[in-house]
Design goal:
two-stranded antiparallel ribbon; 3% strand; disordered C terminus
Length: 331
């Protein structure tokens, strides 16, 4: 009703300032901070380039602060150029610092039931971040020249590339990896994640194409983008909801039992012996040598030949812990 009656709420140029502050200032910084610690480890990549990462942090945040200030002050478009260029260079530096498109440093080790294609989401999200940086750079050059290189922008395609292509994409990818890990559950219906990945990329692509180029049927293209984006979120929600159910945890336990019977994984201290390998690369998961108890090496005590019960001192686990009640060990 306020819009229909023409009631003044806020100046229109503040809209972008608020949106960029929320998407890049809050969500973007949070994701970049988490990615700096987790993406390299999950994908078994080489450690991030720390100096480049800090340079990216300052470039993105100083550029954002400049841009938001200029928009809030209602200054001329030429003043926006430095902020856009700084943010664009910061986005490029973020991707370069993470080494996300480089070869992995070592083979990955998955627990049973892990959705292995979460890497699609992580790489695609940073690919869209490069696309957003490229368009921001082009727009910044245009503002510096006093004109717009992309005059046909509609429906804020760059913002949607950031919000859907980068933020939403990486949230889906990290959720598909971390929720089963935290819940001790097996991700059900992994094919739904593949469909969500396709729908979300199609949504971002349609928004970008019909938001920049004058191809005709713009309204239909933008509407299709919204529909595919909504379907992507709906399809993604289904396995995420099911992984939180008790049935997913029970499925994981059954999978572990089956693999343990084939001497491929672990089920508990009474059946296995833990030993940590030395010199594992920084930031990667712990690798474990697992041996069935029946194959443990002879410790030299007489009980191995006679079948007599062992002394109390021989009951400690491979880590040398003493006096820990059974079932309370932390591997």
């Amino acid at each position: 009703d306020m819009a229909d009656d023409g009631v003044f709420i806020a100046r229109a140029f503040l809209n972008k300032a608020f949106i960029y502050a929320a998407i890049v200032g809050f969500l973007g910084n949070f994701i970049l901070g988490v990615s700096a610690r987790s993406v390299s480890a999950f994908m078994a990549l080489n450690p991030p380039r720390q100096r480049v990462r800090w340079a990216a942090f300052w470039a993105v945040n100083l550029g954002l602060a400049w841009q938001v200030t200029v928009w809030a002050a209602g200054a001329q478009s030429a003043w926006i150029a430095p902020g856009m260029l700084s943010m664009a260079l910061g986005f490029f530096a973020v991707v370069y610092s993470l080494r996300i498109f480089e070869r992995r440093a070592q083979a990955r080790f998955y627990i049973p039931g892990t959705y292995g294609r979460y890497e699609w989401f992580l790489r695609a999200s940073h690919g869209w971040l490069l696309v957003a940086g490229a368009f921001l750079f082009v727009e910044g050059v245009g503002h510096a020249r006093g004109d717009s290189i992309l005059p046909a922008l509609m429906a804020s395609p760059i913002l949607h590339v950031l919000a859907l292509g980068f933020v939403t994409m990486i949230v889906m990818g990290m959720a598909s990896r971390m929720l089963p890990l935290f819940e001790g559950a097996q991700l059900p219906n992994p094919g739904f994640m593949d469909v969500a990945f396709a729908f979300l990329n199609l949504s971002v692509l349609l928004r970008l194409v019909f938001g920049i180029a004058r191809l005709g049927m713009t309204d239909i293209g933008l509407a299709a983008s919204g529909i595919f984006g909504l379907l992507a979120v709906a399809v993604f929600t289904w396995p995420m909801w099911k992984v939180l159910r008790p049935a997913a945890r029970e499925t994981y336990r059954q999978t572990v039992r089956v693999l343990a019977s084939n001497q491929q994984t672990i089920i508990g201290k009474d059946e296995i012996q833990w030993s940590q390998k030395s010199a594992r690369p920084r930031g990667t998961q712990m690798q474990l040598d697992i041996k069935p108890k029946s194959q443990e090496s002879d410790r030299g005590d007489s009980s191995s030949d006679t079948g007599a019960p062992r002394d109390e001192d021989d009951s400690q686990d491979s880590r040398g812990e003493e006096g820990v009640p059974p079932g309370q060990e932390q591997p």
